[in-house]
Every structure is written in C-alpha cells, then in structure tokens.
Amino acid sequence: MKKSSGSQVVGRFAPSPTGMLHTGSLVAAIGSYIMAKQADGKWLLRLDDLDTQRQIPGMADDIMKTLESFGLFWDGEVSRQSRNIEHYQHAFADLYNNGFLYPCSCSRKDIAKSSSAPHPDDDCIPYSGTCRTGINQGSAIRSWRVRVKDAEITFSDMRKGWISQNLAVVTGDFVVKRSDGAFAYQLAVVVDDFLTGVNQVVRGEDLLTSTPRQILLQNILGYPNPEYCHLPLVTETDGSKLSKRDNLISHQLGNAAGRKNEQLFYALRFLGQNPPEDLLACNCDTILQWGIDNFKSAELPT
Ligand code: GLU
User: Count of domains in the chain?
Assistant: First the structure.
C-alpha cells in the first residue's frame, strides 16, 4: 500500500444531507476534527449529496449550522459531491481506458443502493460475475463494474489494527456507475478525497467494509492511500433507545441532547478519552481544546 505523501494532515467530515446531524455523525465529526487538529492539520467539510433521492431540502444548511454551534469550524470552502461529477467522469474514463471496467446488465438491489454509503444492515451479496465476459446480446447496459482480483487487500486501521479483505469473496466486481448515470459512492469518495488532498479518513465503523474497495480504486487510479481510523458506532439516535444498550456513555450522550457542551464531553468519553469531570461545566471551545490537547487514539475502545 502506497503511503500518502505530503506533510500536513488533511482530515475531513463528509455527512450526507439526508437528515439532521445525529449523535453518531457528531461522534465522527468530533473524532475527525480533533485528530486533524491535534496533528496541526486541516479539517474539511464535504457534503455527500450525490444520492439526490435520499436528500432532504434544507439539511445541508442544518448540518453546517449544527457543526458551527458545536464550535466545529471547517477549513476552506465546503465541497459538494454534486459539483464534482466531471471529475468522477474523468476517473471513470481512466478506469475504462485501462481495462478495469465492464458493462453489466444484471438488475440487483445493490445497484439501486450503490450511490449512497453502504451500512452494515445492507445485504452484501458478492456479485457472481455474470457479465464479466460480456452481456447477453440484446440486453441493455444497466451499470458498470470494476473487476476485482482474487487477492487480499490489507490496510492498517488506527483503531482496529490490520484489516484484510478479499474483494472477490466479499463484494465481487462492484458497481462504479449506475444505469441512471449516477456514480457510485465508492468511486465518488475516492475521487473527492484525492481532489481535496485528504490523507486522514476518520469515520464510523459502518464504512470499514467499504475501505478495501476504496483502496483498490485508489491503487488503480494511482492515488495515495489515506490513513484510516474507523470509530465505534453510536447506532441509535434517540436517548431512550440508547439507554437500552449497556453503555453508560452512549446513554449520557443521548440524554445530553440539546446541551452541546455536555454532548461534546460525553462524545469524548464515548471515544475512550478521559476528560475531567469539571470540564462538563465548560463551553464547547474549551472541551474541544481539551480534546485536541489530550486525545489518544490508543484509548479508542476496540
Ligand atoms: N457520506 C457518508 C455517510 O454519511 C460518509 C462518507 C465517508 O466518510 O467516507 O455515511
């Protein structure tokens, strides 16, 4: 695996404007912000707005206002996937011209899902390779897939350690462009991160299984591989559901809804950090600064 070059850390937070920022995304925002800032790096904001069907008007603004209200200010301009289509097209052409893509006429549920980030409850049935050697005569092209090799893709995650995945077994040849012309999340995210010089990807563990596909695309396209840290998930979004889990911190995180400084405090605890009790009375800036000064990735719960 090729290492990212360049000295400054560039992290990012990439929410999809499909709803308000929930506790789980807030944890990813805080984790990525603190880790980038601790390294004296930049923290970028990107709106993953490719999946137009799942978007809710007004949510992009709502997310940005919420981040600001926590003191989570991003560096530079906000980028939006919807403005990067031309770049995805270039990357697609590059893959195509180098013989990595083939058209597929199969109709599958995962094709419909492929423009948004996958989550653990999505079925992941490996594609059997029906169209690998050509589509049936008369069949329409529905999507474009990238050929994967029967080989392990291995990377080191800052929290989870060494991760290895054989894409031929787990996903099979995966979709990079859908029949409606939309580029798949897996391709878009790789191009976006490359374009903005992102070399540190800190995000929820629900995307851990996507990372090998993204590494494969980075490798084929000749992009450097960012470093990765997949954070523990807070899956439930309301306080009552959180309380059912045997996890005091996520319970407190849920109950602190509304009190931004407390949410930050408990998010740090959720991330395995140990902010002193008296920090609870401090404002968001002070709590974030404590995080920047004291965050230890080795303390992240495994
Ligand atoms: N937009 C994706 C999501 O909200 C995250 C993309 C990423 O962090 O790579 O799940």
Answer: 2
